[in-house]
C-alpha cells in the first residue's frame, strides 16, 4: 500500500514538474523578440560594439541599471538590463510582460523633449537591454525634499513642461497613470528642465495602430497642436484598472467599484494637480483615505449642511433642490478651506490657488484637459512676468498688469 502511495506521489510530482516546464517554455517563447519591430532596436553585437557598460546605478526586482558610455563620442547613458528568466518565473509574468511591451511601445512613440529618451533596445536569449538618457538632476521628489515649497515662477516652469507632455501623450491615445514627483526627473542639479519617466502603468488606446502611432508628427509647440481635438480621435481612451500611487490617485480611480464606468486621461490631470499642490506648499493635500469622493453620499452632504447651518427642507421640495445646490456650493467652500489652509497658503496668489483647484476638480467630466489647463490665467506669460517682478498678482492685475484671474469659479469640488 505504501509503495502504491509513493508511486502515485512521484507520478503527481512528475506531472507538476512537466506542467511547470511547459509553462516556463511558453513564457520563454513569449519573452523572445520582445523588442522586434521597435525603431530603436539594434542587434546585440552592434550594441556591445558601441557601448561600454560600467558601474551599477540601481537595482529592481527584474532588472539592474548600469552606467553606459558611447565608444564613439563618449556620451553618457544608462542601460536597464532585464533578466528574462526572473520575469518568466514571476507568478504574474504574463501580466508583467504585457506591461513591459506597453511601456516600450509608449517610449518608442513619445519622442518629446520632456519625456525620457529611449535611445536603443537590444536583447539576447536571457537579457533585455534598454538604453536611456541619464537625468543628472535626479528626481523632482528629492528637490522638493531639499527645498520645501517652490516659488510660483519655478512651479509654473515645471508644470508647463508636465502639462505639455500630457497634451502630447493624450493626443496620441496614451495615459501615463502614475504622474508623481518620483517619476519626474531633472536634467541637471541646477536645471528646471524635466523628463517624465516610468511608463510601467501606461494605458494605450485600443484605437492606436502601433505602426502608425510611431510616425505621428512631432512639432516644437506641443500645446498649440489642438490636443483636445486629437483626443477626440481616441474615443475609447479608457481604463478600468485601479493603479497608481495613493497620494496622486484621482477620485475616480481611488474610489472605483467594479460596476463603475471606466476612467480616462483626466486622471493624469488630477495627478498633475497634486504635484502642483506639493510644489507650492511642500506637502500633499491628503492621503489615500481622504481623497475626495467623486459622488459624495447624501449623508455626507447633510453633514456639510449641518456644519454650515443650512435650513432643513423636505425631500423632493423646491426648497430641497435649492438646499442641495447650496450644499454643493458650501461643500466647495469647505473643500477650498481645507485645501488651502492659511498657514501654508497665505502667501500664494489667488491665481495659483485657482489653477490648483481647477486641476483638482473632483468630477472628471468637468476637470480641464491638459491643454485647457495650460490656458488658465496662472500659466500665461503675463502672469509669469508679473510673478518674477515680485507681484502678488491680483492687486497687480487690478492695476493693469493683466486680467483678474482670481477666484476658484464654478465647476470644481463636488458637483451636485
Would you give an account of this structure?
With 416 residues, the protein is an alpha+beta fold. Helix content is 44%, strand content 12%. The protein contains 17 helices and 9 strands. β2 and β3 form a beta hairpin. The longest helix is centred in the first third of the chain and has 29 residues, at 2-30. The chain starts with a helix and ends in a 15-residue tail after the last helix. Mean pLDDT is 74; it is low at 210-235, 300-330 and 394-416.
Poorly predicted residue ranges: 210-235, 300-330, 394-416
Report the span from N to C terminus: 73 Å
Radius of gyration, whole Å: 25 Å
Helicity range = 40-55%
Q: How would you sum up the major sheet?
A: 5 strands, antiparallel
Beta-strand percentage range: 5-15%
CA-based shape: globular
By DSSP (H or I, 4+ residues per run), the number of helices equals 17
Instruction: Specify the structural class.
Output: alpha+beta
Strand order of the largest sheet: 1-2-3-5-4
Number of strands: 9
Q: Mean pLDDT across all residues, rounded?
A: 74
Could you spell the SSE succession in H and E letters?
HHEEEHHEEHHEEEEHHHHHHHHHHH
Helices and strands, with pairings:
Blueprint: H1 2-30, H2 44-50, E1 51-59, E2 63-70, E3 76-83, H3 84-89, H4 93-109, E4 118-123, E5 127-133, H5 140-147, H6 152-170, E6 174-175, E7 184-186, E8 194-196, E9 203-204, H7 210-213, H8 227-231, H9 251-254, H10 266-281, H11 298-307, H12 318-339, H13 342-345, H14 350-359, H15 370-373, H16 381-388, H17 394-401
Antiparallel strand pairs: 1-2, 2-3, 3-5, 4-5, 6-9, 7-8
Helix pairs in contact: 6-10, 10-14, 11-12
Amino acid at each position: 500500500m505504501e509503495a502504491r502511495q509513493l508511486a502515485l506521489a512521484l507520478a503527481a510530482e512528475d506531472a507538476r514538474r512537466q506542467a511547470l516546464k511547459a509553462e516556463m517554455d511558453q513564457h520563454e517563447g513569449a519573452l523572445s523578440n520582445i523588442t522586434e519591430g521597435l525603431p530603436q532596436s539594434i542587434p546585440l553585437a552592434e550594441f556591445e560594439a558601441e557601448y561600454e557598460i560600467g558601474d551599477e546605478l540601481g537595482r529592481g526586482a527584474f532588472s539592474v541599471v548600469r552606467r553606459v558610455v558611447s565608444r564613439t563620442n563618449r556620451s553618457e547613458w544608462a542601460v536597464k538590463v532585464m533578466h528574462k528568466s526572473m520575469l518568466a518565473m514571476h507568478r504574474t509574468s504574463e501580466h508583467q510582460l504585457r506591461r513591459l511591451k506597453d511601456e516600450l511601445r509608449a517610449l518608442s512613440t513619445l519622442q518629446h523633449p520632456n519625456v525620457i529618451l529611449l535611445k536603443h533596445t537590444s536583447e539576447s536569449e536571457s537579457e533585455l537591454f534598454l538604453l536611456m538618457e541619464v537625468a543628472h538632476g535626479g528626481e523632482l521628489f528629492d528637490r522638493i525634499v531639499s527645498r520645501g515649497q517652490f516659488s510660483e515662477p519655478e512651479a509654473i516652469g515645471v508644470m508647463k513642461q508636465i502639462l505639455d507632455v500630457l497634451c502630447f501623450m493624450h493626443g496620441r491615445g496614451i495615459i501615463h497613470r502614475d504622474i508623481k514627483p518620483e517619476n519626474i526627473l531633472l536634467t541637471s542639479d541646477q536645471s528646471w528642465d524635466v523628463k517624465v519617466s516610468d511608463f510601467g502603468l501606461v494605458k494605450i488606446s485600443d484605437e492606436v495602430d502601433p505602426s502608425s502611432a510611431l510616425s505621428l508628427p512631432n512639432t516644437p509647440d506641443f500645446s498649440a497642436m489642438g490636443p483636445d481635438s486629437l483626443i477626440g480621435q481616441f474615443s475609447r481612451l479608457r481604463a478600468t484598472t485601479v493603479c497608481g500611487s495613493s497620494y496622486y490617485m484621482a477620485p475616480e480611480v481611488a474610489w472605483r467599484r467594479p460596476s463603475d464606468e471606466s476612467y480616462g486621461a483626466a486622471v493624469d490631470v488630477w495627478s498633475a494637480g497634486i504635484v502642483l499642490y506639493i510644489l507650492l506648499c511642500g506637502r500633499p493635500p491628503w492621503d489615500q483615505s481622504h481623497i475626495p469622493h467623486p459622488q459624495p453620499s447624501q449623508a455626507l452632504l447633510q453633514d456639510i449642511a449641518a456644519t454650515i447651518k443650512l435650513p432643513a427642507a423636505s425631500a423632493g421640495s423646491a426648497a430641497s433642490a435649492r438646499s442641495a445646490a447650496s450644499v454643493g456650493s458650501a461643500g466647495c467652500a469647505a473643500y477650498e478651506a481645507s485645501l488651502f489652509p492659511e498657514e501654508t497658503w497665505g502667501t500664494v496668489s489667488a491665481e495659483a490657488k485657482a489653477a490648483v483647484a481647477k486641476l483638482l476638480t473632483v468630477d472628471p467630466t468637468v476637470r480641464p484637459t491638459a491643454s485647457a489647463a495650460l490656458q488658465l490665467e496662472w500659466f500665461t506669460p503675463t502672469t509669469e512676468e508679473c510673478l518674477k517682478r515680485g507681484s502678488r498678482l491680483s492687486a497687480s492685475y487690478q492695476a493693469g498688469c493683466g486680467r483678474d484671474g482670481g477666484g476658484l469659479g464654478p465647476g470644481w469640488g463636488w458637483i451636485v
